[in-house]
């Protein structure tokens, strides 16, 4: 069974009925759990309302680095993050590729999220692009010994992946790995140990080959898994089993919800 470790179900352009069908399609393909990731604390309540009826969907809480116009205070973030249904903090992080001009506010927000992760003992979901040094340095500087997490939709260097793995982080790979242009990423994925890998769709964005150009959806995590299994020289089942186990090791609160 597969897990889509990172999707934005509230951002799919779908009615509630269509979303239910989308999740059913994924379940039929063997996807057993979905982590629906928050990008704006102001949208948290409406995101939760869209997915809370589904037993196999868990949620995070945070402000995406590119949504700083919707930034919130440390206190407001902590208040939501403490809620029992929240299994992770994020997505947070640094993106200097798309928004170098908001660097200062991104840094402040990222540190707030790390502090909230420490306070709540919930794992971090980190988005990082063209900000390798600052991301790793801030994690080293601010994270508590018990705080872990994932670098999601990873497209950076092996060196950065290894630095994160040393801090007990996981590396999540999206459909980008199937893109023609992703030769470097493929080499990185080959070198990351299987017991540190997660898979995701980042729906509704980044549909994997052969669905490029379409709206992405959680069921397509199967194509991501198939592609990575071939790269790693393991069976799809083996890749599914290990990435699913990794997911529940990292996001232990999601497991409790699934078992309930
Ligand atoms: Zn992201
Ligand atoms: Zn995302």
* Helical percentage: 40-55%
Bound compounds, each kind once, are: zinc ion
CATH topology: TIM Barrel
Architecture per CATH nomenclature, i.e. the level-2 architecture: Alpha-Beta Barrel
Strand order of the largest sheet: 1-2-3-4-5-6-7-8
How would you characterize the largest beta sheet?
Answer: 8 strands, parallel
> What count of helical segments does DSSP give?
10
**H/E element order:** EHEHEHEHEHEHEHEHHH
Say what oligomer this is: single chain
Mean pLDDT: 95
Describe the global form.
globular
What's the number of structural domains? Answer: 1
The fraction of residues in strands falls at 15-25%
The H-level CATH homologous superfamily, spelled out, is Metal-dependent hydrolases
The whole-angstrom Rg is 17 Å
Structural class: alpha/beta
**Can you identify the CATH class?**
Alpha Beta
Q: What ranges have pLDDT less than 50 throughout 5 or more consecutive residues?
A: none
Tell me how many strands there are: 8
Task: Characterise this structure.
The protein has 260 residues and is α/β, with parallel strands linked by helices. It has one domain: Alpha-Beta Barrel (TIM Barrel). It is 43% helix and 17% strand. The chain has ten helices and eight strands. It has helices spanning 16-28, 44-51, 74-81, 103-120, 132-142, 158-166, 183-191, 221-232, 236-250, 252-259, and strands at residues 2-7, 31-36, 57-61, 86-95, 124-129, 149-151, 169-173, 197-199. It has an eight-stranded parallel β-sheet, with helices on both faces. The longest helix has 18 residues, at 103-120. The chain is globular. The mean pLDDT is 95. One zinc ion binds at residues 6, 8, 37, 91, 202.
């Amino acid at each position: 069974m597969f897990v889509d470790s990172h999707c934005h179900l509230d951002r799919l352009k779908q009615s509630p009925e269509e979303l239910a069908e989308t999740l059913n399609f994924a379940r039929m393909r063997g996807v057993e759990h979905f982590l629906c990731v928050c990008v704006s604390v102001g949208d948290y309540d409406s995101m939760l309302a869209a997915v809370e009826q589904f037993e196999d969907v868990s949620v995070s809480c945070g402000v995406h680095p590119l949504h700083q116009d919707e930034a919130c205070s440390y206190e407001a973030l902590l208040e939501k993050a403490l809620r029992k249904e929240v299994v992770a903090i994020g997505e947070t992080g640094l993106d200097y590729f798309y928004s170098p001009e908001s660097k200062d506010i991104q840094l402040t927000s990222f540190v707030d999220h790390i502090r909230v992760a420490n306070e709540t003992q919930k794992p971090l979901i980190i988005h990082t692009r063209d900000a390798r040094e600052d991301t790793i340095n801030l994690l080293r500087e601010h994270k508590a010994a018990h705080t872990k997490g994932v670098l999601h939709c990873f497209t950076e260097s092996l060196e950065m992946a290894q630095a994160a793995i040393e801090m007990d982080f996981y590396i999540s790979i999206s459909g980008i790995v199937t893109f023609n242009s992703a030769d470097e990423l493929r080499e990185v994925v080959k070198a990351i140990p299987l017991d540190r890998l997660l898979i995701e769709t980042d729906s509704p964005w980044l549909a994997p080959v052969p669905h490029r150009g379409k709206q992405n959806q959680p069921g397509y995590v199967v194509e991501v898994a198939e592609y990575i299994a071939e790269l790693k020289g393991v069976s799809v089942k083996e890749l599914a089993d290990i990435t699913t186990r990794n997911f529940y090791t990292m996001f232990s609160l999601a497991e409790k919800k699934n078992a309930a």
